[in-house]
């Protein structure tokens, strides 16, 4: 029967929905009990990019409707056009307020003097969910509410997309194509497609029909009384979907409690690994916590996947479930702190594919897809380097993948495109547009300065790893220094204060891309070059805009105001925090602040961060399926390793040298776990304090602290 509920229970639910605000309202403090909660009044995401994930299934949530689900993506199964909606009086219920969590959305509205409160959640450890709708009669007279349940779908296993059998779980959102057949069986509606099904079960008073709408019920309510209608849904092989759906429908309260417990446990696990953050600037707090959401949203525990767990590049509403080295490598410092085992497994999987020819692997077969990105070699060496540095796991370097040790892979990737028997030269990366993927046909290719300059640190990282393993490769350090001289001699344009690029005919031109700023914190730049580049970076006529950093200078011929990620008008999400972190490390904190203060709004206006953000307005890139990118965590990484100046050493020491920004004088990292230490770092304007639970030291900002064994020492910790 339709479950009746006491008025106080509905009032409590409505209060819960209304109160779901602390993390989203500009200027309000983060609710540390649930730091990912997001209030819809601040949201700028369009409905097609709004969804929830539980590690086994992603569901689209059209938030303007109070009781609707749109699309299910449960790898390897897809129903992109799945529609489930509960209507009243023959009409959909419009949403007045909604609140989001990674696995659940609460919505509320009113129709014909009936208050509606809904909760849509994905259940724990299943390709399944529950839509619960509560009806409260506020009319002052008895009411009969005609309710309809609309359910329809196509259903498929994501089709192979290439001759090698690669699945559709790569970049684009998989689309279902095969119609389903309706079957009513044992109180459930089954939308069947051969051996697959989407199964729905509702309260016993619902009459299922082999037509549209699929289910009907009448709810009779005295004045001020309330009732609930619940619809469980599951996707997958028939037997699996039926069992999952029945389990939820038989005990919906338990299913909801289990889902909430699973979410709390996953959140608690996250902060058992990564530090909590607090400051006197609420926007900065929200910025930190919002950046970590992919570590919850992009984790998949799917038995059909090649890795367990698997961290996708995206995943919301089925988009970009493949794994791109560019994006996964964007978190090379913070990810080993969060999930060291997954860091190892993902590095090894990338080494199992040919990253000299491809940029990603898909999750079902583990096969490579796509062309080569020339940043691949920097990314894989950086991932290996920081994994070993931040965990101390030197034995990892001895593991063998595809016939070579991890160390040998690091060295060979550092030397990619180089010839040890010849003097160092700059690599010609060819005519491809794959580095920036500019849309207007204006080139940036062949001998590119940012890619060649980043080889400097890649050489040195491989050299450090080799020395750590007792297999020194002195030529790597020498080639780094030789590269620095060649880069300046061949590409530095003194007059422009910028690096040129050079085509295959020897002709030079300048492309004013933010990628150049990734050379900061590397000794490949000299002081004169740093000064010149900073002048460009801080120039509002070039890169700085009101709401962020432009990926291409406005003065560049290639500038395109709608090509956010690399062409201008905005920037790929990970780039501004990555550049800000490098500027902190290079000793330019004011330049870092100049970037960060412009992008703090990211934490306030969207529940999770997609591919790119605009810089000239409060907007995000909409023409992409990547709407929750894994390298969003580069923002938290920037605050930990940049603003707080945390640096691990291979011997296990940790150096701390915070630089509080002008927009937040009070900062705190709580329970930073790094190299066996558990540290709290508190900053109060001109002074800071470091504690390991047993010892505590206080120092003025500008004097670093060294954590060495059981000792905390203030001074020059170089």
Total helices: the number is 17
Overall SS class: alpha+beta
Strand % is: 25-35%
Q: What is the top-level CATH class of the largest domain?
A: Mainly Alpha
Q: Which CATH-level-2 architecture of the largest domain? A: Alpha/alpha barrel
According to DSSP, the number of beta strands is 41
Output the CATH topology of the largest domain.
Answer: Glycosyltransferase
Provide the domain count: 3
End-to-end distance? 71 Å
Whole-number average pLDDT? Answer: 94
Poorly predicted tracts of residues: 3-26
- How would the global form be characterised? globular
Helix content: 25-40%
Largest sheet: 10 strands, antiparallel
Radius of gyration: 27 Å
Describe what this molecule looks like in 3D:
The structure is a single chain. The chain is an alpha+beta fold and 718 residues long. It has 3 domains: 3-267, Beta-galactosidase, Chain A, domain 5, CATH 2.70.98; 274-643, Glycosyltransferase, CATH 1.50.10; 655-714, no CATH class. The chain is 27% helix and 27% strand. Strands 1, 2, 7, 8, 9, 10, 13, 14, 15 and 18 form a 10-stranded antiparallel beta sheet that branches. Strands 3, 4, 5, 6, 11, 12, 16 and 17 form an 8-stranded antiparallel beta sheet that branches. Helix 2 packs across helix 3 (252-273), helix 9 packs parallel to helix 11 and helix 14 packs antiparallel against helix 15. The longest helix is centred in the middle third of the chain and has 22 residues, at 252-273. Mean pLDDT is 94; it is low at 3-26.
């Amino acid at each position: 029967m339709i479950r009746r509920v006491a008025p106080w229970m509905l009032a409590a639910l409505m209060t819960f929905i209304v109160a779901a605000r602390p993390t989203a309202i500009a200027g309000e403090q983060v609710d540390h009990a649930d730091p990912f909660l997001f209030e819809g009044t601040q949201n700028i995401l369009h409905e097609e990019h709004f969804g929830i994930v539980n590690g086994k299934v992603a569901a689209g949530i059209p938030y303007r409707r109070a009781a609707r689900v749109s699309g299910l993506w449960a790898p390897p199964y897809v129903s992109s056009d799945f529609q489930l909606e509960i209507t009243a009086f023959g009409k959909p219920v419009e949403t007045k307020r909604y609140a989001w969590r990674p696995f659940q959305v609460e919505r509320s509205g009113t129709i014909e003097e009936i208050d509606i409160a809904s909760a849509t959640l994905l259940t724990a450890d299943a390709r399944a969910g529950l839509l619960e709708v509560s009806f409260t009669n506020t009319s002052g007279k008895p009411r009969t509410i005609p309710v309809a349940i609309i359910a329809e779908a196509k259903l498929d296993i994501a089709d192979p997309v290439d001759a090698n059998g690669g699945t559709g779980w790569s970049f684009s959102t998989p689309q279902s194509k095969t119609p389903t057949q309706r079957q009513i069986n044992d109180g459930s509606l089954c939308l069947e497609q051969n051996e697959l099904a989407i199964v729905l079960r509702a309260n016993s008073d619902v009459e299922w029909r082999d037509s549209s709408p699929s289910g009907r019920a009448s709810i009779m309510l005295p004045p001020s009384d309330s009732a609930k209608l619940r619809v469980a849904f599951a996707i997958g092989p028939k037997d699996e979907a039926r069992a999952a759906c029945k389990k939820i429908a038989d005990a919906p309260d338990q299913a909801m409690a289990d889902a909430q417990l699973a979410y709390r446990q996953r959140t608690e696990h996250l902060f058992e690994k990564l530090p909590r953050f607090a400051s006197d600037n609420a926007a900065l707090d929200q910025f930190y916590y919002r950046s970590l959401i992919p570590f919850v949203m992009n984790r998949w525990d799917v038995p059909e996947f090649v890795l367990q767990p698997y961290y996708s590049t995206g995943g919301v509403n089925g988009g970009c479930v493949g794994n791109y080295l560019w994006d996964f490598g964007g978190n090379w410092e913070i990810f080993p702190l969060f999930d060291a085992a997954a860091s190892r497994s993902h590095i090894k999987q990338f080494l199992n594919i040919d990253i000299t020819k491809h940029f990603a692997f898909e999750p079902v077969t583990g096969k490579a897809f796509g062309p080569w990105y020339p940043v691949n070699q920097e990314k894989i060496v950086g991932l290996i380097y920081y994994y070993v540095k931040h965990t101390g796991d030197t034995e990892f370097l001895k593991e063998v993948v595809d016939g070579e040790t991890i160390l040998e892979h690091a060295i060979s990737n550092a030397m990619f495109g180089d010839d040890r028997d010849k003097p160092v030269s700059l690599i010609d990366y060819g005519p491809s547009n794959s580095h920036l993927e500019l849309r207007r046909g204006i080139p940036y290719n062949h001998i590119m300065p940012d890619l060649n300059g980043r080889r400097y640190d890649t050489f040195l990282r491989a050299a450090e790893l080799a020395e750590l393993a007792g297999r020194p490769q002195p030529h790597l350090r020498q080639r780094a220094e030789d590269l620095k001289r060649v880069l300046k001699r061949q590409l530095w344009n003194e007059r422009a204060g910028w690096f040129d690029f050079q085509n295959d005919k020897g002709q030079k031109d300048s492309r004013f891309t933010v990628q150049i700023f990734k050379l900061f914190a590397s000794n490949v730049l000299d002081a004169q070059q740093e000064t010149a580049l900073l002048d460009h970076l801080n120039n509002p006529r070039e890169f700085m805009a009101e709401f962020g950093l432009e990926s291409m200078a406005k003065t560049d011929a290639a500038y395109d105001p709608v090509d956010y990620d690399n062409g201008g008008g905005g920037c790929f999400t990970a780039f501004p925090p990555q550049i800000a972190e490098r500027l902190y490390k290079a000793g330019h904190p004011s330049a870092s602040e100049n970037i960060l203060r412009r992008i703090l709004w990211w934490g306030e206006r969207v529940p999770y961060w997609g591919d790119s953000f605009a810089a000239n307005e409060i907007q995000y890139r909409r023409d992409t399926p990547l709407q929750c990118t894994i390298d969003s965590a580069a923002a938290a990484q920037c605050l930990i390793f940049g603003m707080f100046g945390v640096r691990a050493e291979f011997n296990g020491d940790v150096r701390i040298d915070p630089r509080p920004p002008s927009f937040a004088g009070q900062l705190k990292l709580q329970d930073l776990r790094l190299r066996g230490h558990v540290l709290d770092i508190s900053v109060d304007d001109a002074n800071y304090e470091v504690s390991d639970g047993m010892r505590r030291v206080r120092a003025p900002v500008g004097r670093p602290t060294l954590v060495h064994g059981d000792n905390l020492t203030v001074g020059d910790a170089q």
